[in-house]
Amino acid sequence: xxxxxxxxxxxxxxxxxxxxxxxxxxxxxxxxxxxxxxxxxxxxxxxxxxxxxxxxxxxxxxxxxxxxxxxxxxxxxxxxxxxxxxxxxxxxxxxxxxxxxxxxxxxxxxxxxxxxxxxxxxxxxxxxxxxxxxxxxxxxxxxxxxxxxxxxxxxxxxxxxxxxxxxxxxxxxxxxxxxxxxxxxxxxxxxxxxxxxxxxxxxxxxxxxxxxxxxxxxxxxxxxxxxxxxxxxxxxxxxxxxxxxxxxxxxxxxxxxxxxxxxxxxxxxxxxxxxxxxxxxxxxxxxxxxxxxxxxxxxxxxxxxxxxxxxxxxxxxxxxxxxxxxxxxxxxxxxxxxxxxxxxxxxxxxxxxxxxxxxxxxxxxxxxxxxxxxxxxxxxxxxxxxxxxxxxxxxxxxxxxxxxxxxxxxxxxxxxxxxxxxxxxxxxxxxxxxxxxxxxxxxxxxxxxxxxxxxxxxxxxxxxxxxxxxxxxxxxxxxxxxxxxxxxxxxxxxxxxxxxxxxxxxxxxxxxxxxxxxxxxxxxxxxxxxxxxxxxxxxxxxxxxxxxxxxxxxxxxxxxxxxxxxxxxxxxxxxxxxxxxxxxxxxxxxxxxxxxxxxxxxxxxxxxxxxxxxxxxxxxxxxxxxxxxxxxxxxxxxxxxxxxxxxxxxxxxxxxxxxxxxxxxxxxxxxxxxxxxxxxxxxxxxxxxxxxxxxxxxxxxxxxxxxxxxxxxxxxxxxxxxxxxxxxxxxxxxxxxxxxxxxxxxxxxxxxxxxxxxxxxxxxxxxxxxxxxxxxxxxxxxxxxxxxxxxxxxxxxxxxxxxxxxxxxxxxxxxxxxxxxxxxxxxxxxxxxxxxxxxxxxxxxxxxxxxxxxxxxxxxxxxxxxxxxxxxxxxxxxxxxxxxxxxxxxxxx
Length: 893
Hints:
Elements: H1 2-26, H2 28-42, E1 46-48, E2 51-59, E3 62-73, E4 82-93, H3 95-100, E5 104-112, E6 115-120, H4 134-140, E7 146-164, E8 169-181, E9 188-204, E10 207-224, E11 229-239, E12 242-252, E13 258-265, H5 271-275, E14 290-305, E15 312-325, E16 333-344, E17 353-363, E18 366-375, E19 382-392, E20 407-421, H6 422-426, E21 434-448, E22 451-464, E23 469-478, E24 481-489, H7 492-498, E25 502-514, H8 515-518, E26 541-554, E27 557-569, E28 572-582, E29 585-594, E30 603-614, H9 615-621, H10 623-628, E31 635-648, E32 661-673, H11 677-686, E33 694-706, E34 709-719, E35 722-731, E36 736-745, H12 751-765, E37 776-785, E38 790-796, H13 803-806, H14 808-853, H15 870-881
């Protein structure tokens, strides 16, 4: 009997285990259908997930239901933006509700590796406002399919980006981990939370209040669901090493927003805690730094927050007699005294006041003082600022640890001040704005991993006036190039404080520039590696640079007496009247590179004029000549040419050949053509040895190209007594479709050629058309195939029709293809423009501001791509204006 009982128990246990494994598959379809049905009923967004993962063990005794690779993508204004993408959204449900397929009760919720992008656009629309109106839900729902009895939730390894364009407010959080637990079914309960993040950046009005700080916060939040009130009080908040006590009340006013009353204060008066907020100092060995001094840090946030209002706030920082020193460095930074406040009394952004009353420090007993006062940042910014002191940059390495291999030296002497309304500068009311002083830099040297030979500035002298920053003297060395220059910066304050494009003009002279060294490549490089990605031209620059270079070396091309200008404006780089002596002749270029329409497919325009240059050297130097005029490979001689082209670059910075359109002309002053397969084929067909290698002079051709084809307009040439009229089409793939009308003296034909002519005469006569040939034979030759493997067909030319008439169909087909190509380009441009404008408004401004103002190195939210170095970007551009041998998301940002 006992054995029977044991047997029944074991069998029952095995059945239960088998059922536990089988149940997820038995009920999977019910759950998937219900989830998708509920989502579609309640959400205005594109929701997708790869799979539903169901388990009885993950959250035993509850059933675990996980949505793998979840994506929620916006619609309408936010159609190009992903609100959330998560590796897994996991919920614990009651097992009986799963079996029944209705009234599923959710007890816990877990989100793994979410990437969350929260946006309020400039018109106040929110990308998270995706719930359908209650009326719609009510009309399509009978009862609730899901019930919330939440007791626990967690978010692990999250990235969160919040951007409120209406308030110029932004937050970026990397590797956020947050856990919460409490009885959410109760009207009043305590929510226990634990939060930590590896890097938090907060910007407001373009100013970084926090930059890549490590944050921890543990708090018990009192939740009053009936009145929508949430209150907390905790002493377990830390930002880097700064400990903070916080308390506050937040009331949800539904459509009106949130009423906030929060206070915070650091319980410590230790200066070192404030020092930890400086990213360059808060390193792995921060705990070993010697520091002393007292500090005060406190503030509040009070008032209404919604799409049109922000609460009032106050932040106060004060440091007295601060001192810090790395234990293994000889010099301290001392006498650090700071008094600063940020005030906003009523939540109106324009009423914000930033007041750094004083910022004083001494480096090796040399004092340096700064003060800044900013008012009315939106309507009419007022600034009153000054900086005065001397810095021996060579002593910085004795104070602060620099990266391995980095050297810094030089003497900086500053004494500048500004006071007045920034609008007065815009309106050129210089008499109402005060500015003056000088900044001088002497014997500056910077050596780093990216600049192993160093950047040296022997002297830089600037003076400040209300109208401009005058760069009186600039001279130095970089990679064996000696340079000097001068210029003006016309709106530095507008650029720094209001985000206006920086307006400047510079004159630079250099003696010898070797671009191969500048870009880290060799002229003899044949190994190909990854090509440079397109670089985005900044939208906040309006700079004109005029240059004069004695000698410039690029690849194997040497240009002497180089003159020209370069302008960066409106997301476009423009080179104008760049000319010099090269390729045994003269070269002049104009062109543009623009990322205004598309960041991934930059638009290019190139106009060049070469005069009496060596054909072979030119062919090797310009990749466009290789594509458009491949015959140049077989010509030795002198060439004059004008060419205009426009098109796009691909993602690897190489020209998209199908997008290239343009026209030009080529004048072969004198040359010698040999080893050219099509000509050899004609010479062999006609048995005319004199055509295998020919000398030509003053031959001018006009070309037009589009959609991967080059139209060579009819031109005439006389070679060794043979008159030829040539024209037709050739492809970028080197395909041929040419027609040649030839007048050949019969005496030049060999036996094979005469036999060919006799056969042609017989064929015509056999058709009832009497024809006789005289001493001059009119031949019609059609050349097809490819440059390396041409085909030749010959016939007797019987009519007076000229070549232009013969090529009428080819010209018509070319024109139609060009029109079709233009229409496609316009359509693509419009599509790129719309996408680009939206992405720029959300991403580009954030990346540039965080990078330039906060020192944030993580400017790309989810990007795994390596950053493009400036020298790589320049190399990519030049590679495709000239011929250069190169070394060659599931989440939408």
